């Protein structure tokens, strides 16, 4: 039995392949498409290899509409050399789907724009360039809202949805236009925003900082799930809010005394300090943590998030980074004193965690 997650070099975004292989079958789950040409080429090659080996993409999960998650998926579907017909099922909570399922029509601009020109940051796109429009033509889109409490079982591979909850989707439906304006404004000011890091501060200093949760509704609407297969557990948190995950885990019976034991946890929102709370970490027992970030956006990953993890786990921890640039976060002395292992994913290790 082989179970691993491949962490693509997705620039400042997310893109993953979960593969579960036994003697008779191989299951593939892709989560998000990241950004950048290298990520696209690797995803494209993955599709080609799966097609050549008569494999399927059993599930494609688009966690939410931020372009660092969705842009690469659009690029895959628009690449005529990629056979996307091998995809069996897609999870994607689009704006129109949210409005339709919740019987509301609050927002007007449900087709979220993807910046195709990175230099100009223009937010307008031609008709048909949204993922929703593309998926409508494929017939593989599971056009039902994905929300907490649902689970998906594919031959013993179980995905339990931990985020978003219905309340968040209702709020997003009501505030779609205003939230969209916020995110467009944020992108237009991106070059002016600070990318200062907190890497010069000590682990103890950062772990003592008060937690303040992310305020983005789009991040809060991110699909997050717990994957279970036999004795293997994987926590994929997208850009989700920790309060939503805490509520879901408590509803599943987990607590400070009955922690969720997972083999691997993908840290939410590129390890932003606003998306990993002490309350969440009290419910988790894990040794391996994945961080997807090239360090180019807003000083992410935040060392503060990693410091919380180090001090919350009563065991040595290993952080898996998809860029070597992250070597500057911890000093050798910090790693030794705190039993931290840092693994830098690359071609030599196949960008994979697990095995």
TrEMBL record:
Entry-linked InterPro entries? Competence_DNA_uptake, RibonucZ/Hydroxyglut_hydro
For this protein, the record's PANTHER family field holds: DNA INTERNALIZATION/COMPETENCE PROTEIN COMEC/REC2, RECOMBINATION PROTEIN 2
| GO MF annotation, one | hydrolase activity
Per its record, how is this protein called by name? MBL fold metallo-hydrolase
Q: Which key words tag this protein in UniProt?
A: Hydrolase
Q: Which domain of life is it from?
A: Bacteria
